[in-house]
């Protein structure tokens, strides 16, 4: 079986699809996988689950598996009733839906021994969605013997591919804050794919270039649309940073922008992140400033968005 294994960052440096047989001559509609969760268990008492296996998509561009989840038995994800979402790591390129695509699922629940492992979901289903001519959000539920999976999908019409890279160009992410980077198209407000959720592990940054190691980096945006990349910081359950950087879509080339973020324990003025307003943070130094803001630090991010068109011909 073949898999799409090329690194998105490497493809971006090559102009994404400049070295393949794909001819970037036309704009195609694409599907974004925003999330995938275990919606139902046939035996509810089984929670929590140690999940491993693969989820992939095949489309009309090539015959390869475009992997969105892949974990070995010794690297399971713990999935709970409270947080039933799989941590997706793909796809490595946009999913084109000029023709039907196929979702392939091969997931197991780890047992005490390999002989006690159980199938969680094993299926291959055809995905078609040609009923509307605007970008929109939809859900697809697929049942198998032990579970029901729910895909939250975005149907993005006449769209281009955006490969997202984020670097820290100055400062550093404050210790103790959970980071979340997300992306989405402005035409479907509120629907965002998670590029990175650091949890309690800190922000993974490459030593060379200070590039943030995102779990996912590929999005789709209408050819005349807008990509929005969001940066959130959490202190416990409280959001202390919520900023958005917007990019007008292009068919080729690279968009470069920067965003300076101040990390404050208390925000004295509501921040309208979707309009890109900068919060009135105290930059005098750590401690409580004149606005009653506990300043934790600041950081500047550099965004590189590589744009390309994928065609099935």
Keywords:
49% strand; eight-stranded antiparallel sheet; Immunoglobulin-like; 2% helix; 2 domains; mainly beta; five-stranded antiparallel sheet; 313 residues
Descriptive account of the structure:
- With 313 residues, this protein is mainly β.
- The protein folds into two domains: 20-155, Immunoglobulin-like (Sandwich), CATH 2.60.40; 160-308, Immunoglobulin-like, CATH 2.60.40.
- 2% of the residues lie in helices and 49% in strands.
- It has one helix and 17 strands.
- The chain has one helix at 8-13, and strands at residues 28-41, 49-58, 66-71, 77-79, 95-96, 101-109, 118-127, 136-143, 147-171, 178-185, 193-197, 218-222, 226-235, 238-248, 254-264, 287-288, 294-308.
- Strands 1, 5, 8, 9, 12, 15, 16 and 17 form an eight-stranded antiparallel beta sheet that branches.
- The longest helix has 6 residues, at 8-13.
- It is globular and about 50 Å long.
- The model is unreliable at 4-25 and 267-291 (pLDDT under 50).
What is the residue-mean pLDDT, rounded to a whole number?
Answer: 85
Sequence of secondary-structure elements: HEEEEEEEEEEEEEEEEE
> How many domain units?
2
Strand content: over 45%
Report how far the terminal alpha carbons are from each other.
Answer: 22 Å
Number of strands: 17
Short description:
With 313 residues, the chain is an all-beta fold.
Write the layout of secondary structure elements.
Blueprint: H1 8-13, E1 28-41, E2 49-58, E3 66-71, E4 77-79, E5 95-96, E6 101-109, E7 118-127, E8 136-143, E9 147-171, E10 178-185, E11 193-197, E12 218-222, E13 226-235, E14 238-248, E15 254-264, E16 287-288, E17 294-308
Antiparallel strand pairs: 1-5, 1-9, 2-3, 2-4, 2-6, 6-7, 8-9, 9-12, 9-17, 10-11, 10-13, 13-14, 15-17, 16-17
């Amino acid at each position: 079986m073949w898999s799409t294994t090329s690194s998105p960052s490497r493809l971006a440096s090559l102009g994404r699809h400049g070295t393949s047989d794909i001819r970037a001559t036309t704009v195609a509609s694409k599907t974004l996988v925003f999330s995938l969760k275990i919606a139902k268990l046939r035996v509810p008492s089984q929670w929590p689950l140690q999940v491993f296996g693969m989820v992939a998509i095949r489309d009309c561009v090539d015959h390869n598996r475009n992997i969105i989840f892949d974990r070995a038995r010794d690297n399971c994800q713990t999935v709970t009733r409270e947080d039933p979402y799989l941590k997706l790591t793909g796809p490595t390129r946009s999913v084109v839906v000029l023709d039907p695509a196929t979702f392939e699922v091969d997931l197991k629940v780890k047992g005490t021994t390999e002989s006690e492992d159980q199938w969680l979901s094993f299926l291959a289903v055809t995905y078609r969605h040609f009923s509307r001519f605007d970008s929109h959000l939809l859900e697809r539920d697929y049942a198998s013997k032990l579970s029901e999976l729910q895909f939250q999908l975005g149907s993005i019409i006449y769209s281009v591919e955006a490969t997202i890279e984020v670097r820290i160009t100055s400062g550093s992410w404050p210790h103790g804050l959970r980071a979340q980077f997300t992306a989405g198209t402005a035409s479907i407000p509120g629907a965002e794919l998670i590029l990175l959720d650091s949890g309690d592990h800190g922000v993974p940054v490459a030593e060379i270039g200070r590039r943030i190691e995102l779990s996912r980096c590929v999005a789709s945006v209408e050819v005349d649309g807008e990509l929005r990349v969001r940066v959130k910081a959490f202190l416990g359950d409280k959001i202390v940073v919520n900023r958005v950087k917007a990019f007008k879509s292009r068919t080729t080339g690279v968009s470069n922008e920067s965003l300076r973020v101040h990390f404050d324990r208390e925000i004295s003025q509501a921040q309208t992140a979707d309009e890109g307003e900068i919060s009135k943070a105290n930059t005098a130094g750590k401690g409580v400033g004149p606005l009653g803001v506990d300043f934790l630090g600041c950081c500047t991010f550099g965004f590189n968005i590589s744009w390309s068109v994928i065609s099935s011909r």
